[in-house]
Here is the input.
Amino acid sequence: MALRVNTNVAALNALRHLNRTEQALSTNLERLSSGRRLNKAADGPAALVISEQMKSQISSIDQAIRNTETSVSMVQTTEGALSEVSNMLINLRQLAVHGANEGANDEKMLQADQNEVENLLATMKRIAMTTQFGTQALLDGSRASTGVAVGDGLEFVSASELSKSSPSEGYKVNVTQVATRPLLVSTRSLTLQDVNPQNSITFVVNTGNRTTSIDLKENRTLWEQVDKIRRQAGKDGTPEAVERAGRTIQQLLAGELQAKLDDTGMDLEVFVYQPSEMLGVVLSDFDSLNDTLEEMRTQPGGLDELAGGNEVIVIRHRQFGSEPTFTITSNVAGFFRTDAPANSAVAAIPGRDVEGTIGGNPETGGGEVAIGKGQLLMGAPSTDIEGVAVRYTNTTEDELFRVFSTRENRDIGLYKQEKDNDFLVGESVDGYVHITQNALSFQIGPNQVQNSKFSLQSVNPEELARSVENESGFRSLNDITLLSADESGDAITVIDEAIGEVAMMRGDLGSFQRNTLEANLNNLRISKENLTASESQLADTDMAAEMSSLVKNQILLASGTAMLAQANQVPQSVMQLLNVGQ
Here is the structure.
């Protein structure tokens, strides 16, 4: 065995192992004391990168959770105010019902009701103007998606939180097809031959979900009128009397059918008029109605021909578009279609939806193709105009005018003017719609575009129930008065519309809270849980494994120290060699 004094290889080897054990022991102590496996980049460069990204995501999710919880609180504040408005509307309706009790009310009672109405409306306005979350106004209309339409026949209907604000000049609106309504026109007039004691006249109208019918003989009062007219015409015997009787009976029949349709709640209208096609007159040929009538006077028969028996019955749906439909069945063969046998259903001529574009440059073929439904032109999904809706009210339907014969000094019925599609939509741009986007934006996710928008409409009485037709001239909820039974009746209609609007707002708000905010909150909490678990697997210390490693390294440290001491004793044996000769 060689003995060397200058280099103690055994000691160096023991020292190297001891240093490595000390380093491992230091790592054990660091991990056990911090609870983290990744304390510095050298502990796991790739794992550290992933861990830091996850920590950033977890922190952002934490903030998104807090954002969503705050948003829920804001929605609850808004819904609470809307609930109070709903209660006030219910009180208003109760007052309106009381005001309609004309037989028991006097002026003082009505004035007391009106005073309470004004107080409730003032309170509603105050709620609309003062409901806030922090300093954010909620129900004054400042957080809504609003718009205005400019153009002949154009009306702004709505915009949603998805709609983008329009440029300064607005979105161009180009209508290429005007909406029409389903209708049926009789092929001829009713005659006295159609009405006789042996043969009644029956009509059955069906809209798919509702049906109504009339039978002349079943309505005793009406049948007596018809029979009297028929007998009187028979006594007179002149062609004019016969035609006049047929026209009168036809008008009575149309009136009875309209009453039945109204009683059944069917959205159809019935009228009688004389077509102007027999005189070859259309609106586009003349500048005014007077010009048109003057032209008719110069033709054979002129206006006097309108006094003949050529009136027809028109049944028309009140709603525009391709969805509404109806059929009519008559026991008079060929009355609504020449080839239709008696008691066979005849379908209405289908209506058409409006067609056109919104936005872009229609002159160069631009613009987003919009979706038509009736008279509504709506922005398509995933476009800048999504959620935008405008109504185009111009129609190709005939305009009906009462015509008065100065020669005979009597009303001779309705006169029709025609307008065609090209006449109405010939311009490349029919108008503009200006959109202002002020919807609330809620950052409910950890990343840039993970937000959700919601529009809060105004509940100011001046903005509620603005589209209700009524004879009292109430333009909004703010205008209602209860000073007469008629006004109270119209007020009930207006209040019902306002109740529906506020209820819809509450429903939308509740849906947003439940299906967007609270569902998102649950999802964020689950994501946080899963991300935290994943990050923990990467960066947290496995305490059991680390304790085992610590014990091992402590033993190795003690053993290594002892072995280093032993290795340092090896060169001492050289001294024994030096003492051999002594």
About this structure: The longest strand covers residues 410-417. Residues 9-35+542-578 form one domain.
